[in-house]
Recover the amino acids of this structure.
């Protein structure tokens, strides 16, 4: 094992594993999922020590993104309904509410028809449920399929999740090029977790050519995240990388970061 690769992966794990695990499974009270997440983190630490893939730790960032999606969209929907004087929420909001209170069977019953009808949000939610074994037996192939449907419609959370699955070989053979492609799509839309992840990929040359200037730019963008943990990791990675770069490279990366704007997703 190349010593530099060993160190690179271990350092990358250190940067990602600090993301707090409260979002795994999306419910603080779900002790079973909490135990599973702690076990995943332990496996990830061992993997890093052995120089193997560090991708499982990124699931913590994914969980935070999905929890924010459920909570924000559900709460936002209730506020909108209240403002309009509407008494009942729609099936998407009802499905997410059921998920939040731990009624996984009802959540699956409500979300699946919406996903089958092409609702990208429901498809992303269903992908998460299959990936974590909520409301149905854990099935990575199903999780990948539903996330791909949502990702093809431009859902950034689904794109980020696909990147993790391809990185880990979950539901499909491990494919770093596919992982980088989907992570980049989410990063381009402003997904902070994807920006941090893609910065690591560009720094380490995993799935995309190694490029310190590009990595610095993506770390800089992640350092602006509203999520404190991602913001800290982005800043730490950016500053560590700067110590190995020339002033001209840093200036170029800073200019790219200042000029960056989120890109509207397109199939083309």
């Amino acid at each position: 094992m190349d010593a530099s690769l060993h160190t690179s992966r271990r350092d990358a794990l250190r940067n990602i594993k600090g993301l707090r695990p409260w979002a795994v499974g999306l419910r603080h009270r779900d002790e079973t999922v909490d135990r599973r997440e702690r076990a995943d983190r332990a496996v990830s630490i061992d993997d890093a020590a052995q120089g193997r893939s560090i991708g499982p730790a990124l699931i913590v960032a994914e969980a935070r993104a999905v929890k924010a999606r459920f909570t924000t969209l559900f709460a936002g929907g209730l506020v909108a309904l209240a403002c309009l004087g509407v008494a009942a929420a729609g099936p998407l909001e009802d499905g997410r509410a059921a998920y939040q209170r731990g009624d996984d069977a009802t959540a699956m019953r409500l979300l699946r028809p919406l996903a089958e009808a092409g609702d990208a949000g429901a498809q992303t939610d269903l992908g998460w449920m299959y990936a974590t074994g909520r409301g149905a037996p854990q099935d990575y192939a199903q999780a990948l399929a539903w996330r791909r449907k949502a990702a093809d419609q431009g859902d950034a959370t689904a794109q980020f999740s696909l990147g993790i699955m391809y990185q880990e070989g979950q539901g499909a053979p491990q494919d770093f090029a596919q992982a980088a492609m989907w992570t980049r799509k989410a990063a381009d839309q402003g997904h902070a977790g994807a920006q941090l992840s893609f910065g690591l990929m560009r720094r380490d040359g995993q799935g995309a050519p190694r490029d310190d200037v590009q990595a610095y730019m993506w770390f800089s963008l992640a350092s602006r995240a509203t999520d404190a943990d991602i913001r800290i990791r982005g800043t730490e990675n950016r500053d560590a990388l700067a110590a190995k770069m020339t002033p001209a490279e840093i200036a170029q990366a800073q200019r790219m970061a200042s000029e960056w704007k989120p890109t509207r997703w397109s199939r083309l």
User: Anything to note?
Assistant: The domain at 3-259 is CATH 1.25.40.10 (Serine Threonine Protein Phosphatase 5, Tetratricopeptide repeat).
